[in-house]
Records
---
Amino acid sequence: MTKSASLKLFILLLLVPLIAHSQNFTSGFNFYLPPGDTGSTRFIPRFLRSPLTDQDFVSIDGNGHFSVKGAPVRFFGANLVADGAFPTISKAASVAGRLRKMGFNLVRFHHMDNPWSSGSLFIQGSTTRQLNSTTLDRFEKTIAEMKTNGIYADINLHVSRTFTAQDGLPDSDSLKDFCKAINYFDPVVLALHKEFARQLLEHVNPYTGRSLANDPVMAMVEITNENSLYRYWRDGALKPFAQGGILTVRHTKMLDTLWLSFLKGRYTSTSLLAAAWNVGSHQSNQGNQLVNGSFEDLRFMTPWVMELHSSASAYMLRDSVMPESGKYSAAVVVTQTDGFDWHLQWKQIGLRMIKDTLYLVSFAARSDSFRSISVSLMKDVNPWTWYGGATISLTPQWKSYSFSVRAPESTDSARLSFTVGGQVGIYWFDDLSMTVAGADGLIADESFETSSVRRIDYASCPQFTDQRVRDMSSFYIKLEDDYFAHMRRYLKDTLNVKVPVVGTNWNIGPADMVVQSKLDYIDNHAYWDHPSFPGTPWSATDWRIANTPMVQSQDGGTVARLMCAVPMSGKPFTISEYNHPFPNRFQSEALLFITGYGSFHNADAVMFFEYNSSSDDWDTDKVPNYFSIHRNSAMMALTPSCAFAFRMGLISAARQTLTVNYAPDDYLTLPRRDPSGWEGPNLVDRLLTLSHAVRTGSFSSSKPFDPLSLPPTPVQPYVTDTKEITWDTRGLLSVASGRFVGATGFLEDFTNLRIGPVSLKAASGFGAFTLVSLTSDSLQQAQLSLLTVSTKLQNSGMVWDGTTSIHDNWGNAPTQVAPLILTLQIALRADSIRVYPLDPSGRETHGFVTYVPSSPNLFTLTIDQSKQQSMWFGIEKFGSGVSTAVGERAADVPKKFSLRQNYPNPFNPATNFEFWIANFGFVSLKVFDALGREIATLVDDVRQPGVYKVRWDASSLPSGVYFCRLTVCDALESSVPVFTQMRKLTLLK
């Protein structure tokens, strides 16, 4: 059998178990949350119906946060998209009321300008210069009902508008991507954008008597969605169709003309341009430093090697099926992963690098599905210094990639390494090279006189001098600046918009951020496990997900991408789209991740994408698509508690904010250092966001940003500097503050874990739970609290293809929730508690279970959803707590903590300890030997204030010196010691 035939057989064997395996679960229960339910109950956090008045306009305070009536405000929001943005008149009130009840106080209106449905502000097939009166009426009725319920609106002015021949725009039938990128330099498109803004924002709403521009219901305005000219340049799209770009011939000429005008404004002659651009120009005189980068040499196994760790496994072979060039490519077949992507690395070692030399790494690659991998140049011996690299997104088609690295030192022990241990699959590589990068300035045939000075591609920037790259970057940045400045002035000065305005939410690094920093606030968005489409974009049948949990991500997941130096000092920060899309089996983790880290990074708004986008059906008990959550109980059941925690500030913001200040060259010459650009610049260690807030301060520093000015990379488990959030990437995220506790992940693997006043004793699988105080008291004192338990959800009759797709087999109503069995021990000052399984409206219709403490003020309760069939459990406490002594507790309450010297001392074989506890808390009393090894745990539980005595028998131990340590932690912050004291003991036999 040939190697290529062997590879095909491996693929077939790989797919067979996936096809046979089903992700569906049995014995699920239905928890249908009523779509028109707007009423309050005592165990669901209450979000009162408070109509917005002229005193409720949103502004920005002196601390750089959104403010209403002089007080900071946070928004817990959702997107209404396309058809979902236009409920029928009769349903608008119930839609708004339910949004309010579930905790949402902001709606982002998205894809209102779409061309594919009747749910649009335009009539399909007609002009986009005239608004659809029917959908406009529905939209304005919804706005009025939101206003009555105290819900604000985020208005998107440009998302998916597709120009028609009737609009008077040349080439309208040829414009791609909803005319994105082109809007930055085509004056006709700018005028059409302004016209639509005027039509929408100045139209008087008949239900409120106000236009949006003059109505406090509008909280913010977004100019254009997911639209960065710089990013289109990075992706190689700013060129004609024939060259794989998105530009018509007319727009290509328009952009080229603007480029020449820009240059002439800086340099008045070709000679001055050449003098500036040719500084530092040189030619490379070295060839490819990689051996057998084309894989045509029969000695394929030398020098390419696989580095394997732990249980991860993979092998490599030379493949003749569909190489990028020549007869062969390399194939790396990953057969098993272990959760750590770096445990599988395909590499070439023994490479030579010379200090301060710029190296260009280029290669072609593809994979058997849409996947991401990382590639790096680094030292192959201790201390394994990382010199540079990139994270790249692979597709089933060959694509070319490159990145450059300036060597920080000279070495003969460098390696080029591809990290492929993230997912099982096959990865192909071809045409690998590592060369010393040359640098061109002005090319011989270029001049102002012949209008021939070319725009250069992002990926080719390493081949050009710093000044040429500076000018190219500056050109695209200026076009963005001009467009946003013009639109903002029009909105503020002409239309009299009173609320904050943002540019776009598609930011890949400091070059984008320097533009967005001039708008009123900063926006970003992220998805975990977004569906990919190997063939036709947005195909209804040909799509895949990885179906993996973010809680085991090693790279910081969405948190790192969202939060790392994207927020800016002195400006509000919003997350306009967030989701772990259905049918990912682990999506219940999404709510706690975004609530916890959104609070920690002091975000001003989080918005789930989406609430609904599917016609006017708000009732059918079926999840209709990847993103809609309004019928997804696994997500929606968690929103009341998470919204309450986020909006009320129950989770603390970071204690330390790391500020990143960029010099202009950090972003203007970045394409020379990072020509791949696939995930934006890796200037800041993203994992820092798991311990600290990381915000950008300015873009005008006099010296380049130095990554070494920041703290070192945190180690896992990652703990925030507030000590309230812990992320153990083995599979658990936990949050513990005074009034809120939550955990999500593989709960069964973390038994006896203490999370604030809660200990996780047992669980039957993956899931999420939150516990929130419904009063102003701490959880320890709360008269009423709500426990929410969520796992995974499916439609009835969903049909999986292995683990990665259901194609168009979405199933039918009703939805089913997988039951979880969960045992928790809760520290609560009470004589007894009642636990009420609540119905889907939050009412107490299923009776209650009474619990008495298993030990003083500790209640052990078990939730079995297969029997109780609820996701909400109200907890009510009775009494003020058990006062019975534990051990030999004295009646008097000491005024301080203390560990008294043991007696007798020296001792043989037993001794006595006395310790004083001034406040209710978690108490640990442990004995260690002289080497610091733990010998015995004498106390490890919650104790009331008092004086305690404990006897220790050391008859099984040898003579020697020992140490006893008392640690007392607050009952609500069990990881934060409030007192520690150590005593020396002597055992003599």
---
Amino acid sequence: MDNQDLRLDLKAIDTSSLVDKVEMRLIEVFIYRELKPGDSIPKETELAVIMGVSRTVIRESLNRLKTMGLIESKKHKGTVIKSPDLSVILSKSLIPRILDAKTLMDVFEMRLALEVGMADFIFARKTDADIRELEEIVEIEPERSDQILFDVDHELKFHGKLYQMTGNTTLEDFQNLLLPAFQHVYNIGLLKMKGKRKRYKSHKELVALLKKGTPDEFREGMRRHLENHFVRILSAGEDHTSQ
């Protein structure tokens, strides 16, 4: 048997489990040592010697941690701990067209929970300039908008402004991340309305509550504003259960 035949029979050794172990061990040490953003970690060669594995395994493990946003390379400092950007991490896997219907519905429910739950933050941190901007956004709306279907840009502009008013940049980034999933739910008809639409709080009424109402009234107003979405989710759930 010549060397060529021997090479054909050989296969690469699967080191994925070893990479997994190194990755988890590094994370455990980061936590145990209470490392903070900016703290340096040993070089690849040092880690390979300390952990008794090849540089290839170390490099792949570190690449995974970089993808997760836990570490980054800094000029003149080497590899350092990084505060991960949650929206970047989620954006790598939150692809609406490959999510199943159950996951899409869960994401949509999360949106409704966020928008009702963030009402207190909006009310506490609102400014006169915020109110004026919202008034400009809703100026095109009629007094009764129950049966009006506004374009997507208008909806995003109003609700996007509310997320901005929370003063929570992570929440705002999260909203931008989830927007494609929200829109996909609408586009594929996953939400279905049974019976007559309920009278809900309009955008204009929400702005009025922000100006003169109480936090409790605004929170209830937001729930009423989104109520038809909750009804549609329940209807969709009933359809799924009956199948």
